[in-house]
Amino acid sequence: MVAVLYFARSAELAGLRSETLSVPRRLTSLQLWEEIVKRHPRLAALRDQVVFAVRQEYVLLGDQLLVLHPGDEVAIIPPISGG
């Protein structure tokens, strides 16, 4: 089980700020994103802009292998617009 934290637009689209998910221990960042989108299809709109932080380190979507441990935090960080 990992804790998924949603920020800004991702929280709006998911309808919550955090949840606990059961995901495979070893998977790519893209596979993790797909698992999250299965639960919250509206997040698919952020696909080309979203960045993860896994254990507070940035991870881009792609083939990067993640090895998750119980209790790890995964933050979903959409683009932040400044002004």
Topology at a glance:
Blueprint: E1 2-6, H1 9-14, E2 18-21, E3 26-28, H2 29-39, E4 51-54, E5 57-59, E6 65-67, E7 73-77
Parallel strand pairs: 1-7
Antiparallel strand pairs: 1-2, 3-6, 4-5, 4-7
GO molecular function: molybdopterin synthase activity; nucleotide binding
GO biological process, one term: Mo-molybdopterin cofactor biosynthetic process
GO cellular component, one term: molybdopterin adenylyltransferase complex
Features:
phosphoprotein, MOCS2A_euk, nucleotide-binding, five-stranded mixed β-sheet
Could you characterize what this model shows?
The longest helix has 11 residues, at 29-39. The protein has two helices and seven strands; from the N terminus they run E-H-E-E-H-E-E-E-E. A five-stranded mixed beta sheet has the order 2-1-7-4-5. Strands 3-6 form a two-stranded antiparallel ribbon. It is an alpha+beta fold. It is found in: Cytoplasm, Cytosol. Belongs to the MoaD family. MOCS2A subfamily. The modification Glycyl adenylate is found at residue 83.
Q: What is the ordering of alpha helices and beta strands?
A: EHEEHEEEE
- Major sheet characteristics: 5 strands, mixed
Q: Helical stretch count?
A: 2
Question: What share of residues is helical?
Answer: 10-25%
Report the mean per-residue pLDDT as an integer: 92
| Portion in strands | 25-35%
Regions with pLDDT < 50 over 5+ consecutive residues? Answer: none
> What's the β-strand tally?
7
Distance between the termini: 37 Å
Record the strand order, biggest sheet.
2-1-7-4-5
- Computed structural class: alpha+beta
Organism: Nothoprocta perdicaria (Chilean tinamou)
GO molecular function: molybdopterin synthase activity; nucleotide binding
Modified residues (Glycyl adenylate): 83
Protein name: Molybdopterin synthase sulfur carrier subunit
